[in-house]
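Hey L., structure's done. Input below.
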Amino acid sequence: MIIFETGHKIEEAMKPVALIILSGLILPIFFCSMKKPADGCERFRNGKYIFKIRGKQKGEDILFLIERRDSIQTETEIKSGKYSKLSVKWTSNCVYEVKMLETSFSLPDSIQWIRRTVPFVTKIIGWADNYYVFKASRGNTVAITDTVWLVK
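Output:
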């Protein structure tokens, strides 16, 4: 065992050096293996998706086909064919806002005004090969979390 002039053992003196060396080796490996949000979310800017509202009409699910192309999104209720056309504005890699441009749904004027003026803000919080999970809200409303499925 080596003892320095200060009386400290070499093991004690080497602890900070060992931590620095380990940090330099392990941390870069850890950070390189993490998924970066930008790497996954950009692939959802364009495409076709299915969104399901569970059991709202006589216990049946309501299915919407979502077609997103750049700054326009069309949401079509599959059973009725009714649709809404929305503007899409990406505010970051995984966050976008939509506002209604037009709709064939019968909505009260007050609801249409809100959908045209107050953005529905959506944050993609996770994804896999065939879906993404989002958290969204409009204004001060309670956020919803749900899944949108990729149409292949």
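The two ends are 66 Å apart (CA to CA). The mean pLDDT is 83.

-- N.
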